[in-house]
Amino acid sequence: MFGELKEIEKISVIDKTKRKILEVAYLLFFFYESLDWQFIFLMLWLIALSIIHWISIKRAGFLIAESQINFNDNVKLLMTFIMLFYIDIKVNNLKQSSQISLYFFYGTEEKFQNVLFGFEFMLLPIRITLPFLKYVINIFEILTFSQFDSKQIIFSGLEVLSTILKLCVQIMLFKYVLNTQGFLLILFVDTFENAFAMLKKLKAFYNQIKLVRMIDKIQDVEKIDSPDSTCLICLNELENGKQLSCGHVYHKSCLKTWISGNFNQFCPKCKQAIKLDEDKINQTDSQTKQLKKQILFQELREIRSNIQLLQILQQCRNIQNNVQNFEGIGNVQYALPCEAIKYSSEVTEIKRLQNNYMNKIIRGIENGIIENHLLPK
Question: Where does the UniProt annotation locate this protein (predicted)?
């Protein structure tokens, strides 16, 4: 199905399998008096499904990172994901899910082992959904040569949501065990670890959104002449970019992608934590917007003055034409100055300036430089 496993895949799967075996050993010790073939079969089935889930998730990451797309490998992995989803859904529609519902909604006591496995099988589709979405979206980007700028932020939000769902399931399981069997240490440890991970990811996700918004407000560094004028994220030359507090400069889009894709925000070059002074950045951004607003208003005033001048000249030409029609072409003592005649396309020029005027206003509103109620009079 997967072919030969890579070394890092083997290490990851072995580590997770060891942890799962420890959990199984603890459960076997806890339920040694009520062991039966159904319990052993469900245990082995859970371990086998978990291993296939882990390998699929790891393999998806490797296939996305490869520069060339192997059609056969991607089709195999896609079919594996679909098969795993089908198995997870079918398993969760069996009696394990019904037993969980019976207990929580009707208080009916069921065999503890079946309820325990029901919760474990409920976690499997939650764990695989986010990696599957990442895989499909990244493959779509590679095939269509497109890119979603806010993709990483959405993935981070979905990862936080996945952690919350897993925590809810484990809290339900811990509550059930506490009420029926007593305190179970291994479930408490798992629940505590997920709660800590959720709080950590929520904090990191908040910092991600905050940093990404602040990146837009950092003043651009124009024309970088230093010998090290390469963006270390995309490895392209830097014409302009955003400068971090450590002094290193990167493209704005690259910096947003880097921050969105890493919960630990640090400079790619010096590994220092990315720290941005919000008050200073807001003050600089306010000053920059004020300066841009003044420049824009000045340009709008100049365009409006030119429009008014051209309209006056157009009126002059119309009057002169009327005078020439009534007094004769040779009698020009009543005609206005001949400079007005030089503008043979006043109407076209007026329309062009009017369009330019409106376009500047629209761009100013879109860029947040001016607001509708602050348009120049």
Answer: Endomembrane system
